[in-house]
Automatic annotation (TrEMBL):
It comes from the Bacteria. InterPro entries: L-rhamnose-proton_sym_RhaT. This is Rhamnose/proton symporter RhaT. The chain crosses the membrane at residues 36-56, 68-87, 93-114, 126-148, 189-208, 229-251, 271-289, 301-320, 332-351. The keyword Signal does not apply. Pfam families: RhaT. Keywords: Cell inner membrane, Cell membrane, Membrane, Sugar transport, Symport, Transmembrane, Transmembrane helix, Transport. The keyword Ribosomal protein does not apply. GO terms for molecular function: rhamnose transmembrane transporter activity; symporter activity. GO terms for cellular component: membrane.
Length: 354
């Protein structure tokens, strides 16, 4: 395997495993105010700017691509957009660690299998690829189980705390005036959202794979570098993704009449995280596309799950540092077991490209 390809996949994994931190810093903005800026930076401004800088003929290449290719690429991007919205919802229920475990595991496996099946001829090593994907799914199951066990412990602590907040007055239990209780969101709902998000998120890579004719035009007709040509494909795929994301955010702005929310005091930090998360998000895709190009024909099949598998390590480091696993030693050990399986699966996939 090309050493530079590995380095690029590692860099992409760091960006992929880090961008979700921004979703912890939405307040005091409302979701729709934060998200429309994030989506505009991540899916329009940064991808187009990077592509045009690397390949000045970006829009000429797109104009010469058949409408069928453009529409199918944007359609898969649109479907992924639904998953992107669900991702933000799932983080609120389960935290960064579990959401990444489920979403990235399913996105990695489905995003690898679909392009593999779409190949005219299966590669000789397809059984190794399938073994790696199967291991990814096992890792996802272990990770999800660890999340459920963590939530049980957290709910038990919350229940004990709430009981201590009550004072006994005769035969009546009365809560102190200053007591504030918070209902924990159900992790079961979060897991279901994350599963749906994972399946839909896989379609981003499917759209990228189906946009290969765009890359061919860039390389063969405009003499573009193979690693940069993938950027043009992302521009097309992400237009579809942006239509869904911006459309939903605008719908929420109208529904909640939250246009004035853009001027909320003390929102500078939230805006900063919105932009940074957008830059990191597409940095992951852009660098991944370059690494996949260096991997050859199986780049989209192998590079995608490798990136998402490695990003799980990064995301869980952040989750651990943010205290998501405090007081849950046994579930945390189970999580580590699941991550170990995912890491091994990543190694198997990497071996299949050697």
């Amino acid at each position: 395997m090309n050493l530079l390809a590995i380095v690029l996949i590692l860099c992409a994994s760091f960006f992929q495993g880090t961008f979700g931190l921004g979703m912890k810093h939405i307040s005091p903005l409302k979701w729709e105010n934060w998200w429309i800026l994030h989506a505009t930076v991540a899916m329009i401004i940064f991808p187009m700017a990077w592509s045009v800088i690397a390949i000045p003929d970006t829009f000429n290449i797109i104009m010469e691509t058949s409408n069928d290719v453009l529409l199918i690429a944007m359609f898969f991007g649109f479907l992924w957009g639904i998953g992107g919205i669900l991702f933000g919802m799932s983080v609120e229920y389960t935290g960064i660690s579990i959401t990444y475990g489920i979403v990235m595991g399913l996105a990695a496996s489905m995003g690898s299998l679909i392009p593999l099946v779409q190949m005219e001829t299966l590669p000789d090593n397809y059984t190794i690829v399938l073994a790696g994907v199967a291991l990814l799914l096992v890792g996802v199951a272990i990770t999800a189980y660890a999340g459920v066990q963590r939530d049980k412990l957290s709910n038990a602590v919350v229940q004990e705390t709430e009981e201590e907040l009550y004072e006994e007055e005769g035969d009546v239990l009365v809560a102190p005036d200053t007591a504030v209780t918070q209902v924990k969101k159900s992790i079961k709902v979060g897991v279901l959202i994350a599963v749906a998000c994972g399946v839909l998120s896989a379609l981003l890579n499917v759209g990228f794979s189906n946009a290969s004719p765009i890359v061919d035009i860039a390389i063969n007709k405009y003499n573009a570098n193979a690693t940069d040509a993938s950027l043009v494909a992302w521009v097309v795929v992400l237009v579809g993704a942006y239509i869904m994301n911006a459309g939903y955010a605008i719908y929420q702005l109208i529904k909640n009449n939250s246009w004035s929310g853009f001027k909320v005091k003390g929102s500078q930090k939230a805006y900063m995280w919105s932009i940074l998360a957008g830059l990191f998000w597409f940095a992951a895709l852009g660098v991944y596309g370059q690494g996949a190009a260096l991997m050859g024909e199986l780049g989209a099949v192998i590079g995608w799950p490798m990136m998402l598998g490695i990003s799980l390590i990064i995301s869980n480091v952040w989750g651990y540092r943010m205290g998501e696993w405090d007081g849950a030693q046994k579930p945390f050990k189970q999580l580590l077991g699941g991550l170990a399986v995912l890491i091994f699966a990543t190694c198997v996939l990497g071996y299949s490209n050697m």
